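@channel anyone free to eyeball this complex?
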Amino acid sequence: MQEFTIDVQQQIAASETPGAEFQALPWTRQRVVFFQLPESVQRDVLDDMDRQEVRRFVRRLDPDDATDVVGLLDEDTQGAVLGQLETDRRERIEFLLKFSPDSAAGMMDLGYVTVDKDQGFEEVARLVRRHEARTGRFPTVFVTDGDEVLGELPGHTLALAGHGSAVITEYLRPAPTVRYEQPDSEVIEVFRANPQSKIVVLDEDDSILGVIYADDLLQAIEEEAGQTLYEFTGVDEQESVLDGAFEKVRRRYKWLIINLGTAFLAAATVGLFEDTIAALTLLAIYMPVVAGMGGNAGTQSMAVTVRGIALEQISLRTGRRAIGNEVLAGAVNGVITGVIVAVIATLFNQSPLLGLVIGIAMVLNLVIAGFFGALVPLVLDRLGYDPATSATIFITTATDVLGFFIFLGLAQVVLL
Amino acid sequence: MQEFTIDVQQQIAASETPGAEFQALPWTRQRVVFFQLPESVQRDVLDDMDRQEVRRFVRRLDPDDATDVVGLLDEDTQGAVLGQLETDRRERIEFLLKFSPDSAAGMMDLGYVTVDKDQGFEEVARLVRRHEARTGRFPTVFVTDGDEVLGELPGHTLALAGHGSAVITEYLRPAPTVRYEQPDSEVIEVFRANPQSKIVVLDEDDSILGVIYADDLLQAIEEEAGQTLYEFTGVDEQESVLDGAFEKVRRRYKWLIINLGTAFLAAATVGLFEDTIAALTLLAIYMPVVAGMGGNAGTQSMAVTVRGIALEQISLRTGRRAIGNEVLAGAVNGVITGVIVAVIATLFNQSPLLGLVIGIAMVLNLVIAGFFGALVPLVLDRLGYDPATSATIFITTATDVLGFFIFLGLAQVVLL
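replying in thread with the prediction:
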């Protein structure tokens, strides 16, 4: 089953006729496979299908999934496909298309009905049956008082319909709300605090636009999940392993050029000590050790801080203690690795002074790594930037430039 | 609200009396805050509470959440706390404690009832009412034929109770199943293919052990999400930004020592060319450029491949084309950045030959980065290792060692 999914996805991505390949799948597989494909391949599949075929695919999807598919089409095809759907379906999709896919409204679903608090279970049952007949799905039932949402009526309370005069407001579960334009991340936050509820999406007037289920959120969370390492390495979040080579180049070269700047800063630092290196070539051999260890330690501190920011365990304002701990941890790890390097350098090169210089450089560079590794993401977060993406540039620059400066500078003073 | 959560978590983590601090929160906040705290702080909180207080906290939680809390206690306290709970509750928790928290059984919930396919809606309604009276929660209803699970009966079908002779098997929704010992990641996989279902957890005999809801999965997915960058940087997955400095050292020093090995391999490679560097110190200045760019490009290829593996879009068997694309992308990016570096080196150092050498080294190193960046995670995945954790070591070693070798080797041949 797993291998099967892999094969199918790869096969579609590599095919000259991805649309035909895709349509050869049984319907239930189509739904699953399509939404697992990277966006670039989804577009290829749709491009390779004619309008009738796209329409056939779209009409069998839930409105919110259908909206995601229609959103990938160019405007002409969009109009042609929508024009051929039943009016009710078309209107729902057109409504959902108005919202950003990364907002609360982009995640929401139209599977709900609303009833007034004064209505009885008979009326609720009637609305539910009508919705079910039209959509094939049991809706979430929201109870309102005028425009205000009072809560959700659990589905099983329908068993009370026909059993006399039960009052619906006595069976309400609280329904947390979000605004239609709130970003995914804030919706996830609301869900975290109310894990067993459905979330109501409201527009500016506080009227209900839709409902978000846990499974809609899961997709958003999974997407967020894959992004950290991407952001960290400067890969465009849309990139997929199945993309072609030139697509990959287009998505990465800018980051590499930015890093080239960083690398040249490090090179310039080394350049300051050209004479020192000329006098003692041995130093060039230990340069990768100093830089590599600083980079690794800084990345560790950064990873922990970025996760702490994401989990809201820390902010710049409350971070002083955490930064202090990173610096202290850097110092201790610096002593551990510095002693090892110093011993090796002393034994191999018969120079205790070289060992001392590189050991001290190691301790200082790991302190720098801890300090910047924790501080940079916190500052970026405070300034409103994404800490995972940009932090590495600054941290690597700090550990490379300061690391080389300390190591070669110490060497110049002590060894020459 | 966000700042409030941050403050509370930090305050508890930093407090001398974390248990008292925690218990000062209103109950609804306690539940949310506790499960957001890092595990080390959760333990501190529980250590600082006496058995009565722990019991008071545990008795108000759902059995699966209660199990997570009880699982953090030492054996003595565990016994004392469990011994004072109502029998029904205690038995449920004791049952759940038997399973690994990272397995399907560790995520599951006991909020279900089973009915035989031949029973009527009246019997279903009776079981549901009994379960609700006992637990305060509406259960999921599974319909079985002997031991075989036929499906789930949607809650709203209870409206059919008392309306004559409806047959329950006509209202079934399919219920996907997992084995109790399957890891989180496989359960998430099943959920992806069946996003709107509850998942049944079965034991070896195919009898039902529990049910997994979307919100149980969410926690697992969020945990998985935070882990990639951790694995990538060699940080222990339990580490939190709120941990103390020595906790941090304990969790990281091993990875740093492993990386020291890598760094020494790079140093040894440079050592082979000590005479070359002595003759042309300029080379030492460009070393960080070659190594840095190779490392960055390799990490990009790795990030994309690791995500592709996680999304099951690729495996070693089907990966040839993707590896080819990474190599080609590396070559193109190598030419782009290589030309920039060559021009700069030529202008700054008045040596077109040095520019040529460093430009060619850049192209070759980015090809190496693309090749190993894609291949290493795929091989590790095939061998059953986690690709995110160990891949960087191998990829960095490849780009450093081969990068220095090519750059300095070429320089020796061309420039001396």
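from a first look: Chain B touches chain A through 126 residues (CB under 8 Å).
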